[in-house]
């Protein structure tokens, strides 16, 4: 290579910056002390090296962009050409990312976006002038650590209109990893989106520390091409949970195989800048309260949690029509007919759930360090805020208990109407942020997020924020002494054991301590499940509440018969009704029977329970018998709307009463049974899943099975003899033992005579 010259004319050499296939690059200074980069042709450059050198000088003279070196001048030394250009400050992405990966892991999504935006912006400038770079790779992107300067270098193999030498060009093995299949197959082919593809590969590498398609050093470009054509790399949000769905989708769109289906550099740069703006918008990190270009400018005073700070973005979510409708839907449906204070709304529960979720994250971060980036914290708060947005008046009664409508979190038309539709103001606002779009993804019943997301655990698990808030809130408004010990928050963490699949991140409850298993931690977790069970026992399955819900369901079924309507009720209208509006709507029905039933709700003149039976006897409270009984009741027609009408008509006929005076009730599932599961860490680095067959979960599940009951209610005006006939007909039909005693006054008593039953 020979000795390094001390100077190139007026330029003094300070040091060698790097050596490439056909040239050496030096850091030099002029007489004024200004620093430049000087590239000097090698003595024996690789094939066509001198022609590439000419092309690079031509490209730099043609281009003018802050992320491209500026051409200064050209000269010769020792009969070899050199080019002087502005200095690209920093180090190559290859060096920078390698160092940062060792120190702190993959780059943050924001860093990757900033780098990509500057490179794409430079490429858009290049492409606009009819030039294709053709060698975009980590070694050819120079960056300062603070990312204030990103420079795309090395234009030796570029092609474009007006270049002085149109020679065949080649690239080394390193660049093959950033080339799409068409370029690997036809090295001389020129397509602008080849450069865009390379940016996608670089972003994937920065965010995962690996290439989207990995091949060994001994494998050739043909193998890499085949791999690209046959395998799809995992999405970035799967490989790196800190990457939002929106950022992941954007970078993956740069990696599509078809050249014509990738975005242009200009449009990709615009999308990239939009994503950056969204991340940098005026928001506050909820877990720390530190200002991130904004602050919690609103406070809501909550009777359970006290002051709850609200960011501007969250305030706007709360202000949408879809969210405001929750003010008029009671959290506990008809429970206010039993506990008169139970008038609180789903609106207040949503606010409380957001607060609890934020507190749990804060406690986790205090114990384990910084686990969550800003997007994740904002996503958690936003999802907690809107998790119940698809609820309707008396939703649990009409959906879970009576099966008249599809459950709110599985109801695709309702999810579409309230969140996905272009008409949804809430959906529009969520789509305006990266984390909001990921929140929307959690509402897809078929989305893998719902099954393996730590966010679902945080909000919806048996020890999640949703349950914690409603235990505290429902207990307070019902005047009951059931609360969740917030010390439980300290037990939560993100699984790091490797016991779960790589793409899964679950919140687990740590049950171990320095001296072994923590009995108090196990008790805290069991206590939460016990407090929840107590509310099901005392409130959610109280006979009077059940009766009122069954009457509303009966009214809806009878209303549908007025004009032989196939649909029970127009769900699009129902979605925007309050509890009272639904009752008023039914009270104006053309059916006198419907009007009569609803009037009894308004005056709390409820139907009388003449038949009440446990669906499972004491010795049958296990999952095998549970499945058998579910199947037998389904075959009987208890869970089918039309067949349920027929069963009620049969009972009424045998007792000699009108069908609308008889209501047969039995939910498809045991109340509260679906949430007694939890990931736990019993030893350091050992995660297991405890469900209904494990320890206290089994006992609590058994208790929930005991709450599964069947009822028959009848009009309180019916004489005692016919009530007995109704009860006998129900017992014969269901083959269950009636616990309403015929020889006592219970059969002649209406629930309204006692606000609190001794035995709910």
- What structural class is derived from the secondary structure elements? alpha+beta
Low-confidence parts lasting 5 or more residues at pLDDT below 50?
Answer: 169-174, 282-294, 497-503, 743-760
Query: According to CATH, what is the topology of the domain at 291-540?
Result: Hypothetical protein af1432
Query: How many strands, what sense, and barrel or not for the largest sheet?
Result: 6 strands, antiparallel
Number of strands: 24
**Share of helical residues:** 40-55%
| CATH superfamily heading of the domain at 291-540 | Hypothetical protein af1432
Strand order of the largest sheet: 1-2-3-4-6-5
Quote the average pLDDT: 84
CATH structural class of the domain at 291-540: Mainly Alpha
CATH architecture of the domain at 291-540: Orthogonal Bundle
- Spatial extent as radius of gyration: 34 Å
Alpha plus pi helix count: 30
Give the strand content: 5-15%
Question: What overall geometry do the principal axes of the alpha carbons give?
Answer: elongated
The N- and C-terminal alpha carbons lie at a distance of: 93 Å
What this model shows, in words?
- The model is unreliable at 169-174, 282-294, 497-503 and 743-760 (pLDDT under 50).
- It contains 30 helices and 24 strands.
- A six-stranded antiparallel β-sheet has the order 1-2-3-4-6-5, with helices on one face. It has a four-stranded mixed β-sheet with strand order 16-17-22-23.
- The N and C termini lie far apart (93 Å).
- Among the domains are: 7-86, Phosphorylase Kinase, domain 1 (2-Layer Sandwich); 91-279, Transferase(Phosphotransferase) domain 1 (Transferase(Phosphotransferase), domain 1, Orthogonal Bundle); 291-540, Hypothetical protein af1432.
- Helix 3 packs antiparallel against helix 6 (192-208) and helix 13 (346-368) packs antiparallel against helix 14.
- With 760 residues, the chain is α+β, with helices and mostly antiparallel strands.
- Strand 18 (512-513) and strand 19 form a beta hairpin.
